[in-house]
């Protein structure tokens, strides 16, 4: 991680769970971290969980990644404050309790697609433009899911699985575009199984279901970022021991 010390990472969805763990670990590793979240006060509170030497490196910005105007405003702030983006971590993701074919669920389905797919693409686009402008060999990381590789027969998954399949396809498309553009910017998809976060049903979090911790995914992010410039981790799948998905 030495080459990223002092560099700027934008992390989405930092109010809890995986995003919060990533934001803290990157700040502790010496990066300047901009955490984008709707519940910005919860990102601010993460500073108290950091060593005093790292607290000033974490910056909370209020941003709903389902809204393009808020994304553009946030990236403009990053450019004006820090000069641009070197690492983009697309973590923000939501699920909604409905069935795909349930009546009257249009808004819920759109919310999932706007956050999990469009938010990821638009943040990547703005990060890439910043990297290209400054000739930076940066890194874009998508927090995907095992549900983006296999359809899981689990209640209320609805369009969530489709949104994660989209991330799998987008990762490879993005890789092709970056290669065709002659850049050395890396793209990585990290696909966890069940992780003990707020997005999971409470009964699963409190039961005996095998689950990963948010910190396990953050460690995978650090591993991908820490690889030599010649190495690109395209896909990394992480599952808890005993998971039956």
UniProtKB/TrEMBL annotation:
<dbReference type="InterPro" id="IPR002347">
    <property type="entry name" value="SDR_fam"/>
</dbReference>
<keyword id="KW-0560">Oxidoreductase</keyword>
<comment type="similarity">
    <text>Belongs to the short-chain dehydrogenases/reductases (SDR) family.</text>
</comment>
<dbReference type="InterPro" id="IPR036291">
    <property type="entry name" value="NAD(P)-bd_dom_sf"/>
</dbReference>
<protein>
    <recommendedName>
        <fullName>Dehydrogenase</fullName>
    </recommendedName>
</protein>
<dbReference type="Pfam" id="PF00106">
    <property type="entry name" value="adh_short"/>
</dbReference>
<dbReference type="InterPro" id="IPR020904">
    <property type="entry name" value="Sc_DH/Rdtase_CS"/>
</dbReference>
């Amino acid at each position: 991680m030495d080459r990223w010390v002092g560099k700027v990472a934008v992390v989405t969805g930092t109010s809890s769970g995986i995003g919060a763990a990533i934001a803290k670990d990157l700040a502790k590793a010496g990066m300047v971290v901009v955490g984008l979240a709707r519940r910005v006060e919860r990102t601010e509170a993460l500073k108290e969980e950091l060593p005093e030497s790292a607290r000033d490196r974490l910056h909370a910005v209020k941003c709903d990644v389902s809204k393009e105007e808020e994304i553009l405003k946030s990236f403009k702030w990053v450019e004006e404050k820090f000069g641009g983006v070197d690492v983009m971590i697309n973590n923000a993701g939501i699920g909604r309790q409905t069935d795909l074919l349930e009546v009257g669920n249009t808004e819920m389905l759109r919310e999932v697609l706007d956050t999990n797919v469009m938010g990821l693409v638009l943040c990547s686009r703005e990060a890439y433009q910043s990297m290209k402008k400054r000739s930076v060999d940066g890194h874009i990381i998508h927090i995907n899911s095992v549900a983006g590789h296999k359809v899981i027969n689990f209640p209320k998954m609805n369009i969530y699985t489709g949104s994660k399949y989209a991330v799998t396809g987008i990762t490879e498309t993005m890789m092709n575009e970056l290669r065709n553009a002659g850049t050395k910017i890396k793209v990585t998809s990290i696909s966890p199984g069940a992780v003990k976060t707020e997005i999971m049903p409470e009964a699963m979090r409190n039961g005996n279901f095998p689950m990963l911790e948010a910190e396990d995914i953050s460690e995978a992010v650090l591993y991908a970022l820490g690889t030599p410039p010649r190495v690109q981790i395209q896909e990394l799948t992480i599952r808890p021991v005993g998971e039956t998905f």
